[in-house]
Amino acid sequence: MNEFTSVLPELIKNITTGMPHFLPEIVLIITFIVVILTDLFYPGKKSVHTYILVLTGIVISAFFTILQYQSSVNGISVFNDTLKIDRIGIIFKLLFSAVVILYALFIKGNTRMQNHTKGIGDLYMLLPGALLGLNLMAMASSLLMVYLSIEMVSLVSYLMVGYVSDGEKQSEAAMKYALFGGVCSAIMLYGMSLLYAFTGTLSLSDPQFMIRLAEMPQSVAAIAIILVLVGIGFKLAFVPLHFWSPDVYEGAPIPVTAFLSTGPKMAGFAVLIRFMEPFHTASNTSQGTPVFDFVAILSVIAISSMIVGNFAAIWQNNMKRMLAYSSIGHTGLILMAIIVNSNDGIKAMLFYLMMYSIANMAAFMIAGKIEERTGIINISSYKGLGKVYPLEMVCFVIILMSLTGLPPLAGFMGKVLIFSAAIESYSASNSLWMLSLLIVAALTTVVSLFYYFKIPLNAFLRQSDEVFIVKVKRDALSYISLILTLLLILWGIMPGLLI
Amino acid sequence: MIPLAHFMLISAALFCIGLYAVLSKRNAIMILIGIEFMLNAAILNFVAFGKYDKLHMGGQLFALFAIVLAAAAVAVSLAIILNVYTYYKNIDPTVIDQLRD
Amino acid sequence: MSLLSILIFLPLFAGLIIVVLPSSVREGYKYVALAAVIIQVLISAYIYLHFNGNVFTGIADQNKYQLVERLPWISLNLGAMGKLQIDYFLGLDGLSMPFMLLTSVVMLVALLASWEIKINLKGYFALFLLLDTAILGVFSALDFFLFYIFYELMLMPLYFLIGIWGGVRREYAAIKFFLYTLFGSVFMLLVIIGLYFSVTDPATGYHTFNMLSMMDPKNYVEGSIFSALAHNELFGVSARLLGFIVLFIAFAIKVPIVPLHTWLPDAHVEAPTPVSIILAGILLKVGGYGILRVCVSIFPDAAIQSAWWLGLIGIVSIIYGALNALAQTDLKRLVAYSSISHMGFVLLGIASITPEGISGAMMQMISHGFLSSMLFFLVGIIYSRVHDREIPHFRGLALIMPKFSAFIMIAFFASLGLPGFSAFIAEAFSLIGAFNSESINGLLPRWMAVCGTLGILLSACYFLWTLQRMFFGETRLFGGEKWKIQLTDVNAREVTALCILTAFALVLGIMPSLAFDKMNASVLELIRLVNLK
Amino acid sequence: MPLLTFFINVFVPGKFTRSGFCAIASIAISLLCSLLIFIAMWNQPFIHVQTNWFTIGSWSLNVGILLNNLSVLMLPLVSGIALLVHIYSTKYMQGDPYLHRYWAYLGLFCFSMLGLVIADNLLLIYICWELVGFSSYLLIGFWFTRNAAVQANKKAFIMNRLGDIGFLTGIMILFSQFQTLDVISLFGEKGLVGNAIVTGGVWTSGLHHMPAGWLTFAGLAFFLGAVAKSAQFPLHTWLPDAMEGPTSVSSLIHAATMVAAGVFLLARIYPLFNDTVLIVIAATGAFTAFMAGTIALTQNDIKRILAFSTISQLGFMILAMGVGASASSLFHLGTHAFFKCLLFLGAGAIIHEMAHLKEKTGLDYDPQDIRNMGGLRKYMPVTFVTMAIASLALIAIPLTSGYLSKDAILIESFEWAEGKGGWYRLVPYSAMITSWLTAFYISRLIFKVFFGKFRLKEKVGLHHVHEAPPAMKYVLVVLSLFCLFPVFSLNPFMFEDAWVIQGFPQADNMTRINAFHTVVPAAVNLISVFLIYLCFLWYGSNKPAPDFSKNGLFKFSQQQWFFDKAYNTVFVAGVLSFSRFLYQFDLIIVDGIVNLFGTIGRGFARISDWFDRNIIDGLVNLIGYLAGKLGKLIRKFQTGRLQQYLVTMLLIILTLFIYKYYTAAI
């Protein structure tokens, strides 16, 4: 106990000095509490107060995050190495804030959610919590924080999926999600416990972590690492941990699906980068064989993700399911950037993620709007919608083009950047994995065109048998998705604005 | 003094039992229990190896957090399973397969 | 803002005007488009007149391009990768200048053919003008990245133009076209990026997408993938050869070559007339232009290595396309297959790497641009009258549509290489070049050229047979008297368009120097570059 | 100076004129210029004027006009005959609704034919060559509603295209070897072709060389062009079919001028040919001449007889080229142009009348069938006389132009064969036999048409038939004047005195054998006269002579009859049946082969179409299908059952473990 008291003041000092860097998250925590209270006292059906409060909170937190950007060039570790604040993390955090804001706007604009019997306040309440979890994921630099933040996001997501339970499918989706997530997090926890057992430390940035791990037999270390990857992979939904995603995406309400396909997925990448960081610094400094060959295993995963996601998407008729599979494919593509593992790779990945999240959000917004107005959820029923919703469908097509990666849209720039990083890495290493990744990526791009273009095919090329008698009204969501689309075009032509 | 290997063996056994329950049981609650087994296996590991990490108490700390989170997760899961039951009148995951390709 | 930029973005601007115009003036859309295209024709005519073929030899020297415009566009600092520097880099030389004029004229004709479009005018003309911009951009871009963007930008409008305003199987045709082309271009993108990392700009030292820098072996980074000295291998094939093949396939799909051609008959048949005109008149040339500008110029060593195969593919395309044309009963399909056959001459000419061959290939592209446009226009006229183009359903059209028949005879005979029309000079010199190749550089065996002449014979067969079946003899129509009334002769608008095309084909046939003078120096420069290796 | 005016004037007929007058005027000016040039240029050093047409790469194509004896001879010939045919046509084509098109096509033809004659560059010759073919296509198919006409013009054009391929190949070879297409520099004195040497199987010229086989190949290729254009075996079948066009066109294009272009081409590029090619040329010519002559024996359509006769005469010219007698060949070309044109025009006049008759009486018969004619001598005397003169010229009776030229060919070929010996003698003998056949078939035609009784007499009165209108009549007369010897030579018996022959370099590779100069013409003429007489007996009588039954003949000597009978059974019947056989052969085998190629081509087309649709497109679809299958396979795993997901997932992870374990162990 004595030993402990001697370090105690230092620990406390550590915590207090870390507090300023934690400001955005503190704001979020406060917002969270305030929102709970507000919702308790002003339960109005539309929960306008909570909505405004949540938005304000997130904006303030984002503002603080921006302030951090200047001061964090080299990265600051706080709270005893549990959190690390650096530029990548901050960019991720900003992205999360943007996604959550869009998500909030989406919920606000979605009448089905708005009219739900339980009221919408609880859902708003979850937003700061979700953002907090995401932010922590982006900053986590110890196993504890990784687990904690992942679980936090997971719990919030389970609730979101199950929240508006107005049907069998939705409850089923929630159950699958929760149980699948439970198993994965248990496996990850077990992996972490093994890692802890091998190294005796939880901090990823602790040099001891790598030294001890390198002393272990490779196969044993590999088992632990793979077990941890399972947990991260659950968030990313890469193969073979993708099974939940189509079912859950289909079952969940559209705004939630939009969120699931963007927020947690991006956070998963953030965590993966964090988790891999020590391995790379180790392999860069020491001469010996790498502790764990991420390149091979991630390449296999990326290739199979691209194949599974894109090929399975061909046959989907449900809009959400199709986007679910396509997002599995995108995961594979983004993994490429991680495998490259250079600064450029990460930059490329960030750009791609940004494009991807905006495009996905916008796509779901439009799909949601159409589902809400016409009740159409199947792609084959989109026939003739191009005439009914010209603005929306044109935006939709542009978004899908961007997802396919056609110039001059942001998706194309993203692909170019990722390919550049991969080719650069290939020319340095001549690794066969890189080459096959490139080829599969190129091939699946062609395949992706096939299913993405089913939507314009139906919307514009085919005539509808029935006459739509819905009232065409453009609302906020239409304009938001228009703005997002314009952003995609702008960044496609002028990517320099971003990087 | 119980050797570390024993802790590891027990935790591995717990993990496997949990996994088996998860894979074989025809009841969502039983799956949940299986998950708990697996979590506890990990927690056991943490606590056991926490002995080498006296300074930071990392293992114990982690165990505490894990227990709390596990509880939260179980609560959420139970609520969701309950919800499923109201629609399906059944919680056998092999029957609940409306969402599929 | 140079004249070239104005030329390129003028249609886009007009397209935007059409988008924002209210739909109450929907009849005015086509006039806006027409105004834009006419201005475009005037500008390109101005450029043509001020183009000095001997000064602007182009190819690998920026100073020898006309109307060069080079602005930094995308500049990304990418840490270890250096700076991603993409320029907005345009210019014209003897290889691209003829195509600018061709594009403008064919666009004008296509627009005249668009009068038949009745539904969704706003979307149609907006996409049409977007396509126009993309094509002009492809022909003038000198930065590979910019080139690629314009190249891909062509796909989207085409997909919709075929898909929305096309025939019965338009969905299939549109997606097939799109998938084929995308398949080629995705891999092209990989090679482009590979080239980017292999080449540095001598001025700045950064990697560059500048095509002109890529043509100079000195600019290649030592040991990079596509460096000629490094002799890198991928899958046991030299990396440069592989890069060449990938780029070649990407462009060859456009050309198209056998066996990558099956999108073409479908796309042509299902596309509405103006789009068929654009497809045949311009888009196929993008492929040929790409092979010259990119494949041959950047990978001259690989081009020489694979010339034999290129020639063989050319021959196979010539004969195979012609045989298929012979078997068609759909007039539009026949014309489509004849395009494949005619574009085979282009490939043959290019493969020879002789001045005659390449000039012949260029000429063939230009002449085919005018003639195939004319053919599709003519087919479109029949189709718009009775919505049928099965050859056996018509007979003796010459009696009821004399003017139309006169035009179709001109078009047919010009296409089958009657002297006096541009196609003759083009085909003759493609073949002469190919034949000469063995004496000059030993790339193509002589029998290839001799086989190529078979194509001339076969083209006479299918065109004359069609002429005999459809136009001569006593009038007998599938649709009876009703058709006889519907099949009115060509009207003034159609005559205008057809006369423009006939005039071009004829003038180029009688005075080929009008085209040759502009491109000779560039062609020689290109050959010098290739032989320099 | 005449050059300049001439150059301008050549282009006048090219302009599409709407009325016949305009066309006639322009062609007359052309004729005038041609004559002036002819007078100015004959036997003078050649004139060669060039201008740059276009530059391709660093190589410039200069084109211009070349006037040497060959071209200045052809100029007045072509324009003269063209003028006469133009005049004739004003009457013949009167009343046709598409008359202006007719004049336009004729104008185009005259332009390209004159261009062909004076072009100094192989490419330019090729261009005109194709244009000539094209205008012939247009004219054959002038009555485009007739199915046969359209079939015929397609066939003509495609067969000519086949020849063009040969021509183009030849051009490619020469260009590749010599880097120029200029006729003078290639084939002139000290031309490149002459200087090129063949050593050790390599054909070398300057820096360029290629295997010697290509020299022969080039010769054959050019010859293929000539074969198609001049309707030689086996590409001759288009010519009889081409008779579907108006008769005036047949006379101008398919008898006098265009078909001679092949011979002209051979003359232009004569230095290129080596021995092998020359033998092929001679053999082809001889065989074609013989074959066509035989076929002509049994034809009944007046135009077809003349068409086969044309083929046969062209065969003579080609044969002459082959044996090296290019001067005689061209001489024959000139004489033949006139008398064959005359024959056609005469036939045209007859057909014209017959068609009128048909219209008036409303009877249904073929106005071109000679079996329906007879005794027209009394009603159309001018036509009769002129045609008779032309026939005599064709038979090569002394005092006619044909005698001079044909004997020149025969004699020279005998001399040639004598020099070679052996099987080569077959060539002149077959030529001789052919000239006898000529005598027979042409006199059959004349007698059948003009002698005897009108065979439709029972049904109609002949008073409707009268002489051709003046425009046609005078043309015939003028032409017949040109069939007589003085126009070409003052000495009616010695062909060597003819100015045409003297205008060209003499072939010096054969020794003059005096015996032939007397024996051959004598033999030819004597037997010819006999044959004419025989014909007159058979066909000139009033009785239905071709029926060789006993009661069907004149009361001439029985004995002679026996002789005749023997002769008949052995010889005539043999020849006739051989002729029929050949015609059938021509119709079935040669034409059949042509059609077979067509069918095979179409068959190939179908096969490749099938291949395209099923194999290539099928492959594409197969890839799509496989992609779809893969997608479906992946979907199979998405069962919707949670625990199955988990099992799959864990199995995959286990596989990864095992993989890792082993790779780590190694």
Automatic annotation (TrEMBL), chain A:
GO terms for molecular function: NADH dehydrogenase (quinone) (non-electrogenic) activity; NADH dehydrogenase (ubiquinone) activity; quinone binding. The keyword Transport applies. Keywords: Cell membrane, Membrane, NAD, Oxidoreductase, Quinone, Translocase, Transmembrane, Transmembrane helix, Transport, Ubiquinone. It catalyses: a quinone + NADH + 5 H(+)(in) = a quinol + NAD(+) + 4 H(+)(out). One of its GO terms (biological process) is ATP synthesis coupled electron transport. It is a multi-pass membrane protein. GO terms for cellular component: endomembrane system; plasma membrane. It is found in: Cell membrane; Endomembrane system; Membrane. The chain crosses the membrane at residues 22-42, 49-68, 88-107, 119-138, 144-165, 177-199, 219-244, 256-275, 295-315, 322-340, 346-367, 388-412, 432-455, 476-494. It holds the Pfam family Proton_antipo_M. NDH-1 is composed of 14 different subunits. Subunits NuoA, H, J, K, L, M, N constitute the membrane sector of the complex. NDH-1 shuttles electrons from NADH, via FMN and iron-sulfur (Fe-S) centers, to quinones in the respiratory chain. The immediate electron acceptor for the enzyme in this species is believed to be a menaquinone. Couples the redox reaction to proton translocation (for every two electrons transferred, four hydrogen ions are translocated across the cytoplasmic membrane), and thus conserves the redox energy in a proton gradient. This is NADH-quinone oxidoreductase subunit N.
UniProtKB/TrEMBL annotation, chain C:
GO terms for biological process: ATP synthesis coupled electron transport; electron transport coupled proton transport. Keywords: Membrane, Oxidoreductase, Transmembrane, Transmembrane helix, Ubiquinone. GO terms for molecular function: NADH dehydrogenase (ubiquinone) activity; NADH dehydrogenase activity; ubiquinone binding. It is an enzyme of class 1 (oxidoreductase). The keyword Transmembrane helix applies. The chain crosses the membrane at residues 6-24, 31-49, 88-112, 124-142, 148-165, 177-199, 241-264, 276-300, 306-327, 334-353, 365-383, 404-426, 446-467, 495-516. Pfam families: Proton_antipo_M (PF00361). InterPro entries: NADH_Q_OxRdtase_chainM/4 (IPR010227), NADH_UbQ_OxRdtase (IPR003918), ND/Mrp_TM (IPR001750). It is found in: Endomembrane system; Membrane. Belongs to the complex I subunit 4 family. PANTHER family: NADH-UBIQUINONE OXIDOREDUCTASE CHAIN 4 (PTHR43507:SF1). This is NADH-ubiquinone oxidoreductase chain M. It comes from Arcticibacter svalbardensis MN12-7. The lineage of its organism: Bacteria, Pseudomonadati, Bacteroidota, Sphingobacteriia, Sphingobacteriales.
